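Q: My collaborator sent me two sequences in one message, no labels, and asked for predicted structures for both. Can we handle them in order? The first one she listed is below.
A: Yes, handling them in the order given. First sequence, followed by its structure tokens:
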Amino acid sequence: MITEVVLPQMGLEVAEGVVLALPVAVGDAVAEGDVVAEVETDKAIAEVAAPRAGVITAIAVAEGDTIPIGTVLVRIGDSAEEVGAAVALPATEPGDAEAAADAAAADPAPPAPAVDGAAAEGAAAEGAAAEGANGARRRRAAPIARRAAAAHGISLELVTGTGPAGRITLGDVERAIAGDGQAAAAAPPAGGAGAGRLEPLSATRQSIARRLSESQLIPQYTLSRELDAGWLLAEKARLSAAGPVRVGVLDLLLAALAETVSRHRQLAASFVPAGDGEPASYRHPEGVDLGLAVATERGLLVPVIRGAERRGLAELVLERARLVDLTRAGRLGPADMGAASATLSSLGGFGVDSFTAMLNPGESAILAAGRTVEKAVPRERGIAVVPTISLTFTFDHRVVDGAVGGAALTELAELLEGGIEWPT
């Protein structure tokens, strides 16, 4: 029996992924849970595991391929006798993967007859040689490899492909760029030597660029307030000393934001435009799911704390720490990503006093927090130097009116200045 291992759904907004690594080869024996592919989406790097034990009978993709959700990655059979006539299935060109997946689903092909390993290896080598001999044919290369080669002026004709059937991978191009003798630079791109270097965007950077462009289309407004952070810092020290976990300012901001959104439910709503005969509407989530902006080497990512309003402070701290660690390691799961009720972005750790954050499309509120700064403020008996923190709340004006946003910011400030009891 043949089992197809496909790229699974990895979040509501994830449509495709880039194959980073294929740690298995045709003929390899695998156990249930063994990693058969590593894929990068715009949210995370995920490992795809074998659903059962067996033998890899076919590899349907190549490293560097951009493939839609549902694409077959590998096939697993019961024994080596089920290995097909080729070491790897033909890799698709950009735009063909989805069509091929649909066609396979509509009319699945019968298993290929078994052949011996020497014949399979010979067929693959012969196919690669035929392709190399036909100079008129376009060299088979992963899309990301083509972009990298074009950006660096590398001719694919001079790159040795190490992927299935001689396909050129990103690693092949990177080795050529490094000057290992496998390729020579082609003519420089149009624009002359001063045109600069082009850098292909990763899946994460492409997603960030797309969503920020979408954010610009949202009618948003911003409210700001400077708080006395004395109580906040004292509460942080008290809770850290008394509790089982170390509490940070970020954790108290998250707890206060969760409480504020639970009291002002309109902040959690999202705008759904008219379409398909349906009028424009608001979508109201059941609970309070908070996004947290996290800076990583791959770019800005936003994991989501589910049910934040139901968590005690200690549980919130542990969940925040877990998500931040997974985010920076690129190992977020599908349940840790997606839409949030509101998002917190803090640049205090980077020495930023205040800033305005852009809304995530599909959300109606985002809170930006700066660092704590000591300032002189007037008191009844003179001037006092106190720690302050700047908060900036940005809202979707289609969903949150100015009065509602102002009331939410005021209540958030009171929570953080100790004026209201809030759950810990």
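Q: And the one she listed second?
A: Here it is, processed independently of the first:
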Amino acid sequence: MTLDQLRLFVAVAERQHLTQAARALNVAQSAASHAIAALEARHGTRLFDRVGRRIVLTEAGRAFLDQARLVLTQADRAERTLNEFGTLARGTLAVHASQTIAGSWLPRHLVAFRRVWPGVMVRLSIGNTAQVADAVDSGRADVGFVEGAVAAETLERRLVARDRLVAVVGPEHEWCGRESLDAATLASGAWVLREPGSGTRAALETALAGLGVPTAQLQVALELPSNEAVRAAVEAGLGATALSASVVAPSLEAGLLQALPLRLPDRAYHVVLHRHRPPGRAGGALLALMGLDAVSG
């Protein structure tokens, strides 16, 4: 069993598609198929079943997946440990960030990092706040960036920037042009929200609760997994939402969205670090560029 086989197995399991996994790892489909078959033959058990066009894990495959991920995480950390004895001429920086941060604030910092350390490969993964926190907690991410709260006691947050939420509707929505919106109106209207676990959703729910609209009273017409999907749905006329100012700015300028007269509080962007595990030399270098100390405090 090799690390390449484990990486391929995990890629197929996550995508449920052999061709997509092979493409993601830059290997030929035939080589990928042979590697999975060899792994199954060596241990005498099927890891996948084919269901239509999808490839799904067997019971043995599901049990193996967690272990394979753990081995790959440990192998990556071991390799980074050796690389860090050098001068960051080589290495990998694993960053996980929420969609809002990854789509606006973070890229310029990653570009600045690459200019200083061009030999370090930066891997950026995007998820909601809960997913980012889990990645840092499990060791899959060196550092994370979120705008929501994190629950794990093993994690700490540090302020890095501030953001502003803007409530918006489509230009034909009945709330357009109103000078004020009371709690009853807000509770009776349809809302398009991000999925549970999203920092953007949590911030909006907290703000509306402060305006007298408890979360349980919200009329959620649609839950979507990305800022872009939420924005597009509201542009098409389905309800109201609130997103980062940077996300809605182009649509406001184009007249595709109209801002609502709601005073929503600013929210903070935080870097998320593990309290008991340093972020590594590359992670520390990124934090230093941002004027932060890598040492937990």
